[in-house]
UniProtKB/TrEMBL annotation:
Binds 1 FMN per subunit. CTP binds at residues 278, 288, 306-309, 326, 340, 344. It comes from Streptomyces morookaense (Streptoverticillium morookaense). Residues 5-174 form the Flavoprotein domain. Pathway: Cofactor biosynthesis; coenzyme A biosynthesis; CoA from (R)-pantothenate: step 3/5; Cofactor biosynthesis; coenzyme A biosynthesis; CoA from (R)-pantothenate: step 2/5. This is Coenzyme A biosynthesis bifunctional protein CoaBC.
Length: 400
């Protein structure tokens, strides 16, 4: 079988060097990659590097190998075009359909999915001109990955960093797997909670649970690939930040509630994949609780935590907002799931059976998605990503 053809567009930013790593990942995973740098990008990384790593010529002009009509053919043949880094200038050109070099011509002729990974200084990213160009590109069906927050060129930090090449590769892999389908969550803001809360007892101890965050992170990654703006509220997860997601780190259930409610204000969908502790210690001991010879420990009194899913469901931040819950059950899985769906008042409940060696920390899952109309969507045993895609299929259908 022919290798899938990918065009890697590189525009002129300091992060161009990171595109070498993205190129490696794409070629090593069996893609035929044609690099199309802009003239400015060649100031940062030379054509020899792109050519040697990709096995193809890597010019920026339409005047080389003219007999092959590269300004049309490269775009036409591609199954994916990814521009990383995409500068403010490149986004502006793409949004306005300019065609003054090989990359902009390629973008105009491509009929396949297009992913932009912008990287620039925070001021340039936040400028209304850039934001309008990004909105235009998204409206036309491109996946524009939100830049990461962190160290920028020079001493400043902020939003504008190119996400890790490995994470951009993950987006590309998913977009390619979806084929020519349009990104059905484009223009949508989705909020996902992931991981497990920890309720402190004293400065060194907490009540926690075994959630790894893998399912919530899989939801975030698949939503980015489907074009959504993603806020990921992550409770105590050590997983790498998914490219394109705004990640808010939290510790306790109360912190998680605050972050989710705030992000949900303008969200089209909220998916509560986090394992939120139902109870927290009534008292927090400011100093470490010490054992005392000959004395039994004091019992730990607990108080209820807010039920975030029930609150979101009862008090929708905007009309038509879709709220999704998860339920981990050990017995009478479906009956308990149905009762929980009714009790929480959400639109969809993903029910899975848990126990030793099941679900927690595993990259695989098996579930049934319940809806209030009585429908059941079984999801066979498989990657957590596949379950995530079923959830987004059902959410997208509800959003219309
Ligand atoms: N959840 C929540 N806030 C809580 C507890 C849970 O938002 N304080 C959310 C979880 O994120 C999940 C869903 O509710 O989406 C199911 O949580 P679960 O703890 O299984 O439900 P409970 O109602 O606590 O049911 P039970 O403990 O009786 O199984």
């Amino acid at each position: 079988m022919d290798k899938p053809k990918v065009v890697l567009g590189v525009s002129g930013g300091i992060a161009a060097y990171k595109a070498c790593e993205l190129l490696r990942r794409l070629t090593e995973s069996g893609h035929d990659v044609r690099v199309v740098p802009t003239e400015s990008a060649l100031h940062f990384v030379g054509a020899a590097t792109w050519s040697a790593l990709s096995g193809h010529p890597a010019g920026s002009e339409v005047w080389e190998n003219v007999h092959e009509v590269p300004h049309v053919r490269i775009g036409q043949e591609a199954q994916l075009v990814v521009v990383a880094p995409a500068t403010a200038d490149m986004l502006a050109k793409a949004a306005h359909g300019l065609a003054d070099d090989l990359l902009t011509n390629t973008l105009l002729t491509a009929r396949c999915p297009v992913v932009f990974a912008p990287a620039m200084h925070t001021e340039m990213w936040e400028n209304p001109a850039t934001q309008e160009n990004v909105a235009t590109l998204r409206r036309r069906g491109a996946v524009v990955i939100e830049p990461a927050v962190g160290r920028l060129t020079g001493v400043d930090t902020g939003k504008g960093r190119l996400p890790d090449p490995e994470e951009i590769f993950e987006v590309c892999r998913r977009v390619l797997a979806r084929g020519p389908q349009a990104p059905d969550l484009a223009g949508r803001h989705v909020v996902i909670s992931a991981g497990g809360t920890r309720e402190p007892l004293d400065p060194v101890r907490y009540l926690g649970n075994r959630s790894s965050g893998l399912q919530g992170y899989a939801l975030a990654r698949t939503a980015v690939a489907r074009g959504a703006r993603v806020t990921l509220v992550a409770a105590n997860s050590t997983l790498p930040d998914p490219a394109g997601a705004d990640v808010v780190q939290v510790g306790t259930a109360v912190q998680l509630r605050e972050a989710v409610i705030k992000a949900a204000a303008d969200a089209d969908a909220v998916v509560m994949a986090a394992a939120v502790a139902d109870f927290r210690p009534a008292q927090y001991a400011a100093g470490k609780i010490k054992k005392r010879d000959g004395q039994d420990p004091e019992p730990v009194a607990l108080v209820r935590n807010p039920d975030v899913l029930a609150e979101l469901s009862a008090d929708r931040a905007r009309p038509g907002q879709v709220v999704v819950g998860f339920a981990a059950e050990t017995d009478d899985v479906l009956a308990n799931g149905r009762a929980k769906l009714a009790r929480k008042g959400c639109d969809l409940l993903v029910v899975n059976e848990v126990g030793e060696r099941k679900t927690f920390g595993s990259t695989e899952n098996e579930a049934v998605v319940l809806a209030p109309d009585g429908s059941e969507t079984p999801v066979p045993h498989g990657p957590k990503e596949a379950l995530a895609d079923v959830v987004w299929d059902l959410v997208a259908r509800r959003l219309g």
